Amino acid sequence: SRVAVLISGRGSNMAALIYAARADDCPYEVAVVASDKPDAPGLVLAEAEGVPIARLPSAKDKTQFFAGLQSALEAAGVDLVALAGFMRIIPDDFLARWEGRIVNIHPSLLPRHKGLKPHQACLDAGERITGATVHLVTAELDSGETLGQVQVAVLPGDTPDTLAERVLVAEHQLYPRILGQYLGRTRDFDWISNKVGELAL
Ligand code: GRF
To answer: Which residues are noted in the entry as (6R)-10-formyltetrahydrofolate-binding (predicted)?
Structure first.
């Protein structure tokens, strides 16, 4: 399968997806990396790793940006879109086109602590365990079907930054693994729907 990774910043989850894809038994390759921020550090990293990057029109014009993104994904023959620290609300028409084929990673055990500052929220709630979630992206923020989670212990004295740093280590292992699993699942769906199509004929 050909995966596009969308980033806005550092791109450490993007890097984890790229490195995992180098294993012989990895079921996907990172076909393209795109960002809404032309100066995202992750783009430099992707380029250095030999992964094609899409230079898109300014994200200030939302319609133009997502139209450009759609063309770039089509040109790269992408099957699935993986958001990795992509800090933009995605318009409904784009989501509709990629329904069931767009995933995200969020650094909390969803449905707990959706949105921004999940680590702060976790600490404020006095929780002992947090983690990360890979989920399908739907119109409602951080609310699509959960595909996989990993738990991470909260330590006494943790700050949002120390917690984020530890959760990130777990994210890097979770994301490629769950993406691979999900691609296996969707391949089965494709096979079944193709068979159903053949039978219907
Ligand atoms: C990660 O914690 C991810 O879960 C969240 O944003 C952060 C992105 O970090 N959505 P990076 O750009 O992948 O390093």
So the answer is: 87-90, 104
| pTM check: above 0.80 | yes
Cβ contacts of 129 within 8 Å, gap of 6 or more: 109, 151, 152, 153, 154
Active site residue 172: no
Quick one: pLDDT at residue 30?
A: 98
89 is in an annotated binding site: yes
**pLDDT single digits (tens) 92-117:** 999 999 999 999 999 999 999 999 99
Backbone angles phi, psi at 125, to 5 degrees: -80, -5
Q: Which of 87, 104, 105, 137 to mutate to test the pocket of ligand 1 (most atoms within 8 A of CB)?
A: 105
Pocket test for ligand 1, best of 87, 137, 168, 173 (most atoms within 8 A of CB): 168
Ordered structural domains, the chain, with CATH: 2-200 (3.40.50.170)
Segment 150-173 mean pLDDT: 98
Give Cα separations from 179 to 69, 101, 103, 167, 198 (angstroms). 21, 11, 8, 18, 28
